[in-house]
Amino acid sequence: MNEATRLVFVTLSIPAPLSLEAAHAAVVALAGLSRQPQIVIEALGNNRHVRWRIGTPVRHRHQVIEVLRTHLPGLVVDEPKPLAPGPRADVAAKIRVRSRSVVEGSLAHESTESVTRGVLGALAVAGRHERVHLQVILGPRKTPQLPPQQLRGGDRTLAVAKLREFRFGCAIRVAATAADDDRARHLAERVIAAVRGLNAPTAQLTATRMATTSFDRARAPWFWTTTLSVSEVVALTAWPIAHRDAAPLPGVPSRHPKLLPASASTLKEGRTVGVSTAQPERPIAISVRDSLSGIAITGPTGVGKSNLLGQFALADIAAGRGLVVIDPKGDLIDDILQRADESRLDDIAVVDATDSAPIGINGLVGATDPDLAADTTLGVFHSLWADAWGPRTQDVLHASLLTLARRGDASIAMLPLLLTNPGFRRSIVGRVAREDPMGLGGFWAWWESLSDNEQAQATAPLLRRVRPILLRPGLRGILGQRRPKFDLSDVFTKRRILLVSLEKGKIGPEAAALLGSLIVSQLWTATLARAAQSPQSRHPVTILIDEVQDYLRLPGDIGDALAQARGLGVGYTLAHQHLGQLPKSIREAVTANARTRIAFQLSHPDAREFASLTSGQLEPADFETLPAFHAYAQILHQNTPGPWVSVTTTKMPDPVRSAASIRRRSRERYGQPLSEVEADLLSLTERRTVRESFGRTKRSDTEGGTS
């Protein structure tokens, strides 16, 4: 056998239920192929499931597959493979049609759907280590023709029924393998019994034992003793033929979730999303460049969302890219630390509010534009505390943040001191008042003129929010560092890896929201600084944010910011549990600017929303019935959204070290002991303050006036 005629097989994932009309059209099309290639149709039962394969000579493979794809909507075909060497069965039988009339009678193909159900049930009996096959080999074709003139009456009617369709010379075989021959024979006999449901008064199916060799190699018989019409072949394929509203077929995957194969445009290399659910050996990936256009991941707890984020992070680390991960709980951070590439461990900085020597985050120092740093921080506070925000709060907080930022070595933890400690305040504002007498100088002069009561009323809404957070030592340790050892801009300039473990369950959701939002906003400031670099020097940086609705608080329009980030070489991967969590501004921004979408199992409202985005490819039930670690993805390719594809995410590799060892390494390199941070803050109140008078004299409380 030369290479061109060598048989190769592909596995078919046929969407169920398949209409009888579609199956009939597919077999008619096979009959019409030029050169009449030999075609092997197999149904295989194993582990209570049924699969289908089709074999064809190498040179006809593409032709046959295209015919099937044309007529079987949603068909998924895997990579072609030759038959495995060696035996495939312990017992085998061949089935022939015995005609009981002077002309070839037809099998009862009008019973195709009921017989198919029975055959599938028999195939699905096979257990985990058992296999049972139904094999139909299609040989020489015969075109439709009129019956001989001499036939009359019933014989003519029978002949018309058979001869009006294309016909094939066929070989029908059943084979099985099991722990012992008796069990294998039992499996084969069940399939033969189910096939006999096609027996008709003028045509009977008979089975006899045969050597397994011909089945194993799918060899054509020496003589084609059985001739079947297209309708009869369809009845013997065991394809999942049923009415749309019929009960589920045995051994056949449920109609939902629907399998969507990967298109030719879907990459196999890049940032790996997973593998094709329909073609398990086919990777699904997105290019680094297209990742910069944003990735949105939706799915509730427990479906595999964090696992996918971890895979993305590990890939970025291994590729040497700058990376930030914002994790509300901390489990994902530990997963990454346990598996990160050994060569990047010194690049890792772990921010953790429960650490005894935390890494500091200070957006008020190190910025090239202190006023921008103050405005960015103000925007975070306003976004978090909009319900308690008024004109006076805006005025006081803006001036306070500007004052601290212009000092050059202040931190947010100094905010309560600035507003409540007159001596400390005078030591801070003296210089900035002299440098900006019309702005901050005027504000602080007005502030000093207020009575203690008026100052308390003006600061009460703000301090009610800030103090409870700063009462937590861990938060003070992070936000109180005036000179942090880690610079967030290093993520962009030195390809550092920043892992933020917010530990929401330990420090509280409000404190976690403040810390996470401050970090994200400061990253945005560092992103904008990339505009001064040439496009060629902007290596890709990834920012992964879980529970994005709690931490994405950027100045201005979020959609514009995400679009601008793409041009600056920064890609956001944004994850959340359901659409209802997203404020309108974030939802619109994510929809417009996260151009790769990945959806795990969804609730009905979200499933309905996502199904509407698939142009009819999917129904809400498809999203609702996804198992854990399975998803649908629409992946951007060369700036064009691709078709939706079924994805199975791969689990992260096994841990290779303890997370604690890398946390310790990060702490030693970038952290500051909490005791030192607090001693530094305490020293600010103990220093001899500068007694420098400026502005008007403060009124006493008895002089009247309220804020």
Mean pLDDT over all positions: 90
Query: What structural class is derived from the secondary structure elements?
Result: alpha+beta
Name given to the CATH homologous superfamily of the largest domain? P-loop containing nucleotide triphosphate hydrolases
> If strands are numbered along the chain, what order do they take across the biggest sheet?
12-11-21-20-19-13-18-17-14-16-15
Largest sheet: 11 strands, mixed
How many distinct folded domains?
Answer: 3
CATH 2nd-level architecture of the largest domain? 3-Layer(aba) Sandwich
Q: Classify the beta-strand content into a percent band.
A: 15-25%
Helix content: 25-40%
* Rg result: 36 Å
Predict the CATH topology of the largest domain.
Rossmann fold
Q: In total, how many beta strands?
A: 21
* CATH hierarchy class name of the largest domain: Alpha Beta
- Termini separation comes to 97 Å
In terms of per-residue confidence, which ranges show pLDDT below 50 for 5 or more consecutive residues?
688-707
> What would you call the shape?
elongated
- Helical region count? 26
InterPro entries: P-loop_NTPase, T4SS_component
Protein name: AAA-like domain-containing protein
Region (Disordered): 654-675, 688-707
